[in-house]
Amino acid sequence: MLESPISFTELVKEESSKADRLDSEKRAFLSAFIRMNGYLQLRDNKNGLEVTSENSAIAKVVYRYLKDLYGIRARFAYTRSAGFLKRIVYHVIVDSDAEDILNDLEIDFFFPLDPKNVIATPEQLASFFAGAFLAGGSVTSPQSTSYHLEISCKEEGFARFLLKQLLRYPPHPFHVKLLWRRKKYVVYLKRSDEISDFLILLGAKENCLKFEDVRVSRDFASIGNRLANLDSANYQKSQKAGERQIEEIHYFLAKVGWNGIDNPKLKALMRLRLDHQDATLEELAKLLSEELNTTISKSNVNHLFRNLDYEYRKAKRNGDERKR
User: Fold this and answer.
1) pLDDT 10s digits, 129-147
2) Residue spans per domain, the chain
């Protein structure tokens, strides 16, 4: 059977799981991860702890962190989830001392409290975010047409706590929002620059660079398209203005002829417009400057054409009134 290609979310999670963390940061990581993906089990009249993940690399990290911090030997097991896909779920099982571990991580499954000591520094808080993301997070592929990063939580209280911490994150707050979807509370980010910052917090720097490369290329392409559309719109606008100016020039020539145009600048500009019908105002200003041997700006040319348009409208209006 062909293996499905690894998703961008999986790449981010695997890179984050390999990030170097101090013991205090491992503790913060476990506090979030176990709060979201752990539960108590009674074994031989003792409270045991079971932590699950669908990613073997993440399960191994949880196992290693538990061993590093508490010197315990957890057990590994796996099951297949129900449903069509039948994904493998990895279980990290602690048979004893679960209460001591949970107390140290500031986790209480029965009366949930917000942790404080485990997230005393920005670095610990970043590891706490990493634990939450690896437990229930996802991020859209950089190739996607819209950017989105989210963390799905079973508990509303924990989701709101996560939201509050992200909104107040000391180095710089994130513009996060909360929604209820598919029986879960979802904390999410939409701004691409903040998604990049969050990936760095997770320790996923390589994948952040991939995300930024695609994002910047797309943004440049988008800017290029907008500029092309703007150029096209400006060109069409310029063409219409030129056609109107030529119509007004012909109207005055039919009425009074060249000798009836008293303003030498305007007369020269009218001749140039008839000779260079596709020229821009800037090009006409340059041609007029050369012909009159003086500096004529684009705004001067625009002002002359506005006067011509004013006189044209006035003459047309007077003509229409006489017809009545």
Assistant:
1) 999 999 999 999 888 878 9
2) 13-203, 238-323
